[in-house]
Amino acid sequence: MKGKEGSVVQTDWRALLEAEKTLDSGVYTKHDLLIVRGKGARVWDAEGNEYIDCVGGYGVANLGHANPEVVEAVKRQAETLLSMPQTLPTEARARFYLALTSVLPPELNRVFPTNSGTEANEAALKFARAATGRKKFVAAMRGFSGRTMGSLSVTWEPKYREPFLPLVEPVAFIPYNDVEALRQAVDEETAAVILEPVQGEGGVRPATREFLEAAREVTREKGALLILDEIQTGMGRTGTRFAFERYGVVPDILTLAKALGGGVPLGAAVMRKEVAEKMPKGGHGTTFGGNPLAMAAGVAALEYLEKTRLWERAERLGRWFMEELRKIPSPKVREVRGLGLMVGLELKEKSLPYIQRLEKEHHVLTLAAGPNVIRFLPPLVIEEEDLAKVVEAVRAVL
Ligand SMILES: *Cc1c(COP(=O)(O)O)cnc(C)c1O
């Protein structure tokens, strides 16, 4: 077990896996394999085993692992300019702003770039307070907005929140898809309502049209903002470019991350000019946000998505996939639901043993969404044959 000459790093893969497990902070329960490579919807471990990846980086890998156009853009940018703060304009950042706003409704025309999803939501919450002069947020039960203190304040799950109280207040949580509760919660004190068009972490639950329409209407009536968190649902995942397009509801602030950088860390809060204008100069900031590497990756990712229209593939394959899952004759299944290739299979029992068997017995990687749901977030480039194998694997373990 010797490292490379002059290197302090062990090269034996078992030692590396052990090192990651023991030196890690321990906040994640880790799988028992060392991933070394990915291509499209497949990944390989250190022993050369091949897996169909329906974890998809929690929704990062929409364009496929090692997407060649993203890789090429990253290489080119790395050789040209890696870092540059936002006070100094760069070609890459300008191109990213043009690319992103060109695929959004014209009113969403101001961008705050970030390095992650939670930072995009942190920005959204601060812009909302600055723009309205109000404090209160309305969020949904089972909603997930991230793990930092601000985003956590509008995240519902008690086990994520309670050890860290007090958080930002006041926040009112209402049942998702409950129009009446929403109307009652939004008042003259409300800065913003924040919602996911499909709840991801909360169990893969699509919003009803009435709910998102009501959210748009009541925020307008009360002078509050509507923030749509499309960190997981954006970039083609749900069968349209962004999920809000399907609902015909345009938010005041749209938050994006996960697949936005084609695999490179990148997020953004995109907002109306009137919202951005109310933030004082220096009222928010980020050193790495908008760095040239992430910006170049974002341009390549957006261009690839436009060229391939992968959302159409997500819609078609997602419909087929859900139909096939619904045909599995198992009394253990409560419901199959989702939008596009964001799919949840809810069981009448804990999903974790099935997730583990899918990995060990069938080399299919999936993730949970709450205790009883198996969540599938495959790269949108997944081959039909691979998706058929996933159906067979699920049938076998159930
Ligand atoms: C993943 C996710 C976040 C947080 O993004 P990070 O990059 O992990 O901070 C926020 N909202 C939703 C809907 C998400 O799926």
Automatic annotation (TrEMBL):
Reactions listed under catalytic activity? [amino-group carrier protein]-C-terminal-gamma-(L-lysyl)-L-glutamate + 2-oxoglutarate = [amino-group carrier protein]-C-terminal-N-(1-carboxy-5-oxopentan-1-yl)-L-glutamine + L-glutamate
What's this chain's function?
Catalyzes the transfer of the amino group of L-glutamate to [LysW]-aminoadipate 6-semialdehyde, generating [LysW]-gamma-L-lysine.
- Give the primary localization class: cytoplasm
Return the protein name. Answer: [LysW]-aminoadipate semialdehyde transaminase
- Keywords of the record: Amino-acid biosynthesis, Aminotransferase, Cytoplasm, Lysine biosynthesis, Pyridoxal phosphate, Transferase
Q: How is the cofactor bound?
A: Binds 1 pyridoxal phosphate per subunit.
This protein's source sits in the domain of life called Bacteria
**Family named by the database record:** Belongs to the class-III pyridoxal-phosphate-dependent aminotransferase family. LysJ subfamily.
**Pathways involved:** Amino-acid biosynthesis; L-lysine biosynthesis via AAA pathway; L-lysine from L-alpha-aminoadipate (Thermus route): step 4/5
Name the top EC class.
Answer: transferase
